[in-house]
Amino acid sequence: MVGMSTATEPASVWAHARRTLSGLPDGAGLNIAYEAVDRHAAGPRARVTALRWLDRRMSVSEISYAELADRTARFANALDALGVRPGERVFTLLGRTPELYVAVLGSLKARCVVSPLFAAFGPEPVAQRMHLGDAVVLVTSPALYRRTIAPIRGRLPALRHVLLTGPARPDVLEPGTHDMAALLAQASPDHVIGPTDPQQPALLHFTSGTTGTPKGALHVHEAVVAHAATAREALDLRADDRFWCTADPGWVTGTSYGIVAPLVIGATLLSDEGEFDARRWYTLLERERVTVWYTAPTAIRMLMRRGAEEAARHDLKALRVIASVGEPLNAEAVRWGAAVLGRPVHDTWWQTETGAIMIANPAGSDVCPGAMGRPLSGIEAALLQQGSDGRALVDPDGHVRVLDGQAQGELALRAGWPSMFRTYLDAPERYARAFADGWYLSGDIARRDADGRYWFVGRADDVIKSAGHLVGPFEVESALMTHPAVAEAGVIGKPDAVAGELVKAFVTLRAGFEPTEELRTELLGFGRQALGAVAPKEIAFDDALPHTRSGKVMRRLLKARELGLPEGDLSTLEVNT
Ligand code: WT7
């Protein structure tokens, strides 16, 4: 087929997907916010509900596409009035509240780069990310400002403006802090999105590696082509759907599918301010007649633990599709979904770097329990032969070996799909190392069966997946080592039946400190204070952390010890085997 253009060739798949979008009027480019909001507001969907938001008490507010266009226009104009220019970075630190959607989409209208942060992060991860990302504007709530921002504001000299989503105590306010509602009220609702090159940066998502600072994966406006196409293909999302994505907006799923994709498709987006609670979730699914539900394996396992009786009390017949992402989905959970929720759970695989779903058991086709599925249209996946470090073997000429048929190797994707990240912020060499021979190297190990389905095997590196959240061990170790008692720390993911993994730290103490229960409690509290939700849940004292010859803590050995495996027997650490 070489040289021939067929309907399944990536270029024609994406060209076709691009044609389902409008593009800015007069050929002025492609802007995510225009596709998600303005084109609907200007057409027959103007009065359709874009956002149905449930507050903590489950009372509902609705925002139509026309209203969302108004508010996001005001937000863009407010940024302009504050002197914020296209290309500058706007961060959000918010739970699921209407202001989140307005800030993200309004920033995209203003052609700023927007970076939503996880509101459960403590001050340390937030300071690091805002510093790395040159945050110029932050949108947050007064409570989060007090808890997370006030302690670090002095470390963020580039931060010119803070927009608060509610009234704040005057004593916490520094110059440059504004009331978002007042700014929106003063701003004009008339706004025309400026020319936007599809390759212009739009979204910044931080992700963690094994070492060093978090990586800022930068995505461009063109990503919207993949957001919409993959939501259609993998989730079967349609304009008349009521779609609920449970991911936190601070992680990439919460943006790509929690904000952008459903709005581009013209669906109604459900958003729940509350946290997980089995009865609340079932009530929401039933009462809101959710048709497509995108969630995480940990959530499914929490529902499973609650038992089938709770599910049986609710009418879930409106549910057409259940899908999950972020961590291995056990075959048992897929079948439980079919038996108890009335629909199997469709596993999907992707990463912060890929921006959109790459591999899936697509809605509407048979699910293979335990498998991640097959590459979506326009995506070419491969398994690459691994070297001794577990990563793809790259020969001196820069070539990799693509494995055929049933095989196991590093999962790679042919570079060039629209939502592919375009760089790691300020780390071009790190970006370059993520590719070889035209392939993006995912860092995941997978195998392929005789039917061409991909199965997750494990990570090639030490990053931790806890409740679907990617946690960098280095970030946790560094935070612990700022405590005066800690000489050294090694952090691993400890297998957990519900969360997949729990963050566990092994700590060596400095001379003069005793490994007491009191100190353990203090260190757990210290970790929580600094790191928030990604803090270690368990700390063990260890006076002989294993090291490599170059002096690095050998986390894999710590993990083997934790699992009671013979030291060095790391092959058995893989998941799902
Ligand atoms: C890592 C990426 C993009 C949303 C998810 C979070 C793991 C993702 C699956 C799956 C097994 C999965 C991988 C991947 N992962 N989906 N279906 N089965 N593992 O993105 O935080 O960048 O994490 O999540 O290890 O590399 P992320």
UniProtKB/TrEMBL annotation:
The keyword Ligase applies. Residues 47-425 form the AMP-dependent synthetase/ligase domain. The keyword ATP-binding applies. Transmembrane segments: none annotated. Residues 475-552 form the AMP-binding enzyme C-terminal domain. Signal peptide: none annotated. GO terms for molecular function: ligase activity. Keywords: Acetylation, ATP-binding, Ligase, Nucleotide-binding. It comes from the Bacteria. Its EC number is 6.2.1.1. This is acetate--CoA ligase. The lineage of its organism: Bacteria, Bacillati, Actinomycetota, Actinomycetes, Pseudonocardiales.
